[in-house]
Prior knowledge:
By secondary structure, the chain is mainly alpha-helical. Helices cover 45% and strands 10% of the residues. The strands form three sheets. The chain has a three-stranded antiparallel sheet, with helices on one face. A two-stranded antiparallel sheet has the order 1-2. The longest helix is centred in the middle third of the chain and has 20 residues, at 141-160. The protein is globular and about 60 Å long. It starts with 11 loop residues before the first helix and ends in a 7-residue tail after the last helix. Mean pLDDT is 77; it is low at 190-199 and 325-330.
Amino acid sequence: xxxxxxxxxxxxxxxxxxxxxxxxxxxxxxxxxxxxxxxxxxxxxxxxxxxxxxxxxxxxxxxxxxxxxxxxxxxxxxxxxxxxxxxxxxxxxxxxxxxxxxxxxxxxxxxxxxxxxxxxxxxxxxxxxxxxxxxxxxxxxxxxxxxxxxxxxxxxxxxxxxxxxxxxxxxxxxxxxxxxxxxxxxxxxxxxxxxxxxxxxxxxxxxxxxxxxxxxxxxxxxxxxxxxxxxxxxxxxxxxxxxxxxxxxxxxxxxxxxxxxxxxxxxxxxxxxxxxxxxxxxxxxxxxxxxxxxxxxxxxxxxxxxxxxxxxxxxxxxxxxxxxxxxxxx
Length: 330
C-alpha cells in the first residue's frame, strides 16, 4: 500500500506523500545546508541540524520502480481518471517533486562522491594475485572455489558492465558454450527494472587477448575447480555461495548476494594493500571508461547496459577518460 491506500487507489498526491515519507527513513541521507550553516562545504557534519533528503538520483530510481510497480493497474487508472491521467507516477505533480529535489541539491556545499572506477591496471593486479591464491597448494579447497568464482564474477562484470544482480541471478542451466568462435552465452531471465519480468537478455562472452581480462579463461578455471570439489547438479545458480558440509564443499541454494561479493572485493583489495575505495559500482564505471577510451560513443557503449544516457554519462566520469585519453584496451 501507499500511505494507507491500496496501490490501485493511489493518486499523485498519495505518491508524493509516500516519497516524502521515504525521505525520512534510511541511513544514507543528503544534507541540504542553509547558506549560514557553519558545516557547508565540509563532510564532517555530524552535528549539523540542516534538513536531510534522499539523494536526487536515488529518489528518481525509486520513482521509476514505483512506476513499474503500478503498471499492472494502468487500465484501472485510465478508467477511473481519464486517458490523459493514467499512472499517477507519470503526473506533473510527481515530476515537480523530483525536479525540486534535484534543483535544491544543486546548491549543496558537499559534492556527491562518485564511485571509484575499477581501471584495467588495478583489475589486472587484483586478478593476478587472486589467481595466485587459486593455484597455491596452501589455499583450502573451499577458499579455492570461492576465489575462482570471484575471479570469474569480477572479469565478467568488468568486461560487460552488467549489474551484479543480473549476473547473480543467472542459472547454471542458462550458461551455454558455443564451440564455433569460442563464445559463452549467459541467458538471463531477470528483469532490468523492478516488477518487469518480461525482459530477457543474453550476455555473449568472447575471448580477450589479455589473459587476465579474458572472461572465457576465468569461467573455465572457475568451473574446473567447482567440478573438482562438488557435483554440478548442486549448483542451481551459476554463482552460488559455497560452504563446508561434512568436511566437503557444498553449494548453498540461491545466488550469492551483491553485498557478499562486494565485501569479498573489499577483503581482496585490503589484503593485497591496493584498496582505493573501489566497489562493484566501480566495475560498471571502469567498463564504460574503457569503452570510451577505445573510441566508442556513450550511446554505443551503454546500449543494452543502461536504459538512460544520462545515467550512463554519470558512470562515464569524463575526467578519467580525459586523463587516460591515450589508453586503449587491446
